[in-house]
Each structure stands twice: as C-alpha cells, then as structure tokens.
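Table S5 (text form). Sequence records supplied for joint modeling of the two-component complex.
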Amino acid sequence: MMHYRFRKLLSSLFVGFCALSVLIALVPLAFVLFFVVSKGIGALNVDFFTHMPAPVGEAGGGMANAIVGTLIVTSLAALMAIPIGVVSGIYMSEYAGSRFASIVRFAADTLNGVPSIVIGVFAYGVVVVSVGGFSALAGGFALGVMMIPIIARTTEELLLLVPGSMREGALALGATRARAVVSVVVPAALPGIITGVVLALARIAGETAPLLFTAFNNRYFSTSLTQPISTLTVQVFTYATGPYEDWHRQAWAGALVLVAMVFLCSLLARLATRRVEQMRAN
Amino acid sequence: MRERSRDLGFRLGTGAFALVLVVIVCGIGFVLVQQSMPSIRKFGFDFWRTETWNPVIGDFGALPFIWGTLYSSILALILATPIAIGIAVFISELCPDVLRQPLVFLTELLAAIPSIVYGLWGVFVMVPWVRTLETSLPDSVRQWSLFTGPPLGLGMLSAAMILAVMIIPFTSSVSREVLKSVPAAQREGAYALGATRYEAIRAALFYARTGIVGAIMLGFGRALGETMAVTMVIGNNPKMAISLFAPQYTMAAVVANEFSEASDALHLSALTEIGLVLFIITLVINSLSRLLIWSMSGRTTIVEEPATPLAAESAA
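The corresponding structure-token record, covering 598 residues in total, follows.
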C-alpha cells in the first residue's frame, strides 16, 4: 500500500495536469484569435468589401469578387444539401429501427469523415470532367456533398428529441404519419434544425481544399455558374502563399472575415441551443 | 387502407432522399477507382513502394507522401492525446459548473476555426517561432538524427504541432461524451473504498477505455486527411526523413498542390490514386473508431442523451 501522502500528492498532480491541459489548448486559440484580429483589423477597410483585386504587384484593392463568390458557392451547396439532408434526417428518425436507416446512418458518418480534399477529387471527377472545366457549380457540388451528412445527422438527433407524446397525439387524432411529421414533429424541432443548418453553412464556407480544383479561382468578377469563380478561402490561400507584402495583409483581412463569421454563427447557435437544452431537461 | 398506402408513400419518398447519402458514398469509391485506373495499371503495387515523384518524366511513387502523412499524424497524436484526455477529464469531472459551458464553447471554437486560418497563422506566426526554437538548440543536440538539417521552421515539427491543435477538440469532445456514459457507481465505489480523486477518475477512465481509444482514433482519422494547414507549413518536399526539422510532404498536401496544375492524364490519375487510398484509410479508421465508441456507449448508456447541434458538429 502506497503512503497516503504520496497518493494525495499524485492526485493533486493529476488534477493540476488536467487544468494545465485546458490552458495549453486555450493558448493557441488565444494566439490565433489575437493575430487574426490585430493583423486583420488594420487591413480591413471598405475597399476590401467593395473593390476588385488590384493588378498583380500593385497595392490596394479588395476581395469583392471573392466575397460574392463565396456567397454563390455556399448558396449552391445549401440548395443541394438542405432538402436532401433534412428529408433523410426525417427518414432516419421516423424509421430509426429499420435496417436501411442504420445503413444511411453509417453512410452519413462515413461521408462526414471523408477528408475534404477527397471530396474535391470526387467533385472533379463528377462535375468538372462532365462540364469540361472548373466551375462555380463544381464548387457548390463539392461543398454540398460535405454539408448533407452534417444536416442529416443534426436533423435526426433533433427530431428524436421531440417528445413521443406529441407524435402520438397527432396520430390519435387521425393524422397520417406524413401529416404528423410535417405539421407537428418537424415544427417542434425547427429552431434547432435551423441552428444546425446555420452551423453547417459556417463550417462549409470556411472550406478551402474542396474548392481548389472545382471552383478554382478567378481574378475577375463573375457570377456565372459554369465559369471558375473566386472564393474567400481560396483567395486567402493564394495571397498567403504569394510573394507580396500587400497580399499577406489582405490574407489576414480575409481570415478575420472568416473567423468573425464562424464566431458569430457559433455564438448564435449556442444561444439558440439553450432552448433545446431546456427541452431536454424537461 | 388509403391511409396505409399514404404512409408507404411517405416512407418511400423520404427513403429516396436518404438513399442519396448511400449513393454518394458508393459514388466516391467508384469515381476514384475509375479515375485512378491508368495509374493503377501502369505502376501497380510499385506505386506504394517507390520514392520517385517526377511529373516531368511521368514516374510516380507515393512512398514519401505516405511516410509524411503517417509521421505527421502519429506525432500529432502523441502531442494531442494526453492534452485532449486531460481536457475531457477536467470538463466532465473536475471543473466547477459555472466554467463548464464556457470551456465547452471555447474548445468547440478551436474546432470551428477554418483550416486555412490555422495555415495562415502557422506560416506567418508559428513557423518563425519554430525556427527560433530550432536555431536555439545546442549543436550537440542538433547532431541527433531527429534534429538534423537546416532550421527552416517549415517542416515536420510545425505540421505536427498545428495538427495537434486541430485534433484536440475532436478527441476531447468524444472522450467527454464517453466519460459521461460511465455509471456514477464506478466512481462512488472507488471513493467508498477510500480512493483519492485521481484513483477514482482512473477507475472511470479504465471503464471507458474502449471509447477513449475510439476517440483517439477519430482524432487520428482527422489528422490523416487534414489538408490546408499542413500544406502551408510542412515545406512540401517529397523526401522521406526522420528529422523533425526536415521539410516533408503529405498525401493530402500533394493532391492540393498539384491537382489543378496536372497537365497529363497519368499525373492526374496518380494524384487520384493517392486520394483513393486516403479515402480507404480514413474509411477504415473512422469505422473502427465508431465501432469502439458505439460498443462502449451502447453497453453502458442508461439514459439516452442525444447531442446538441454544436456537440454534433464537433463530434462530426
């Protein structure tokens, strides 16, 4: 038997180590946020949002085309992923016990774990090869594929939170299954589902790897779905790896916009999920 | 009767949408195999044994990329695992209730920051620090094979560090969920026998070991496929090396850098084959880790506790 004092000491050391781990993890977070804000804020101005990139080597200009591009590509992804994601989420929760539901759940989890760069290669093979070139459509497809499993699993989990008595009440009143789901179950979980969609959008808008060889990049303003299109993340990558001081400055500004977007969405989601947590507590 | 057929219609209709998910996963496998056929036919198994990567003469060997991917991910795992488990234990067992929600939010924020932002920070802030660290090592230490080579800052050490930061939130949030499913009786029993806090938590961790291993593997799967941040700090040099200072290359990074510039079909096909193998490896690792986590929580969960959207997102 070890000496009691020694065991106490070991215990305190362990508690200390756990607390230290939290600090160690928060240090990089603090550093990243500090540098993104301090370096980004100086480079962020109205021009950044309203101007096109300056000719190579010249200072100034902005990322207006990349911001519009990110909006277009993300919207395409949402258009594809929200219906498929939400409806398959409904299927998984309504027929939770069936074998096909577990296959779908396995597929969703698998898809969630596929590296984003591989999704890019897939989108290249499906869309770029058939359209015959890089396009906004291909970028939207790649991001959409990434978004579907996130939305599907979130929808499923939130629908399972809806008390069974609500569904049973609707069925007892003579509603068909479809009616019960559409009029009672889904509306009850809707705030949570919307939160999940917003979070998925924030995550997807920050993706770079799947866009490198699908949406590619474009120095000019473009809203065409069949042309290459510039996006905020790819532009930050191009500028960060480029040789010019002014490019680096703008890359920090782009990073600040991305982080601000993610931060706001997470905060909103956190506030909104309070309601869901209360629902769970009851 | 009519109601029943309508219910069947609902089931088939929603099921058709759900089928899309299965089709996509199969489609990824099919498209990747199809596109990498030229490379598979030409190089066969040698693709994974040779070290030359020369697009100009059309000779492709992927060994340096596999080495770089495995080396960086394993290093990241070594750095991240103790910290991630420490965080999980702190949040679920030790910290005061007031701190719990903010800490969960902050660690989830760590997972929400885009990879490209980590990469940008890595290149302009962390790499110079690593370079300073490398130059400040005494010469006698620099003789060791682990630390040979010019101190560039860009290289394996930077890549492993940034990967570790990126996988910590995944491993810790899954470990936390797993710890939550350990019955309170485990800890109470330990305390009743006179255990210290550490001994009681060790009992809980031991009980949860399968799930914890699953959480670690989930982090490993993430590290293998991580692209942008690694591409920006690893130095992109297809040479295998033991040294932490050496610039190296990973599978994901070579696809990211060369895919859009690949001019001939064979080069494209070779890059796709790398993507295919990355797909298969992550598929196997993720399935195994989910199996472990599931067997753990499936065995012990008393009250089913579904995740909130935020938790679902970070566990994804």
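Note: Residues 2-43 of chain B form the longest helix (42 residues).
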